[in-house]
């Protein structure tokens, strides 16, 4: 109808006496008419685009869930937050869902903000798989069958301890830029953290949660965001009670070519994977023992050998290759041919090559089958494709059940948008130059030093090959905290992959760990 109205107005304009008396030459007049016609068509088409609302909107629905024998009544909300620049101009509409406990004054009740990573990933994974009162039903290290999917009440929701807000990053989900804002205004380490800081401050202000204990929960690149975000929020007057880091990558600098740290970081994860797939030469009884052996070798003989670079002797080189083979299941020859530095893609392809199978990146217990068994890297991530269809399907059903309606497409990634390019530069506190490879553990350390009550909990999966747990330990143990702040940093480990919550038993343990962490952080701040 908008198109018809625009064309009708255009026709009326052409029929006016002024247009008939136009003295311009015939060709110029024709060109002018053609341009007006094109503009009218463009304006009409643009009016029909599905765009994010500038005015904030919410839809809500009541629900109940039973946790530890206790029935919890709650309100599930889907909505948008409009964030603005310093002048007050709207710059983005941020989509979120929130689960808040009924019958409890929200002013002093804990609230936790959740988000996934990417960078540029929507947060449907945490929303539908982790601690919300409704989640997809999953089995440990298994492929989620096609529709119909199973999802329903989550007995391991955190609703008993905290309200939860799941946020989609700008350009993902239903979050969109507004007005003349550009992708470059949001797609970068510091710009992304700024947008999240504005969204969280807006939510806290809108719903009167300034007196609530506040927590961040980020997964994967979301932990990179959390480091910068914790500092930015504190710098703007919002002191946090806690930060939960799931499957972390805080320091991208360690991945630079010529540095050996990432090869060292992967050894315990390689050992855990080899143990699981029965490729370890002399496997110990437990996974934890296999990991301990990997840690000892990685930070001992292996790190010493890599430090020598090309000056290592042939005898030491052969000895290290033999020891590494015993732990990882790879042949000594393969390891020597890789100069003792086996990259992740090489390992994933080589470990089960004799079975013509690959292992997953997000979870190395998953196995895939490539068309070319002789290649040098896997053709896909089996642990990714095994779950995507189920999560995406139930997420659309979930939002429909809340009554949230929009003509926009739910974007899984900001990379779907034209002009997407991530700016990796980072201005870290106390560093006099911009880091081209961000290390937001610096930001987190600064926040912990200035806020003595800020607690940090690191959650890790032994089979996570995307963000290896030994790398997380390295990053967080190099924040150079004083003993008082070191006491505020804790680690937990699970027999799972990157998305710990896919394993129901690990999810239960993790829920208890996070619940305990939140309760202690709140009580210690009183």
Automatic annotation (TrEMBL):
**Keyword Signal part of the UniProt annotation:** yes
- InterPro entries assigned to the protein according to its UniProt record, in alphabetical order: AB_hydrolase_fold, Peptidase_S10
Question: One of this protein's Pfam families, by short name?
Answer: Peptidase_S10
Tell me where the signal peptide lies: 1-21
State the Gene3D superfamilies in the record: alpha/beta hydrolase
The question of whether Signal is a record keyword is answered with yes
Which keywords accompany this UniProt record? Answer: Signal
Q: Which domain of life is it from?
A: Bacteria
Tell me what this protein is called: Peptidase S10
Task: State the organism named in the record.
Answer: Sphingomonas anseongensis
Source species taxonomy: Bacteria, Pseudomonadati, Pseudomonadota, Alphaproteobacteria, Sphingomonadales
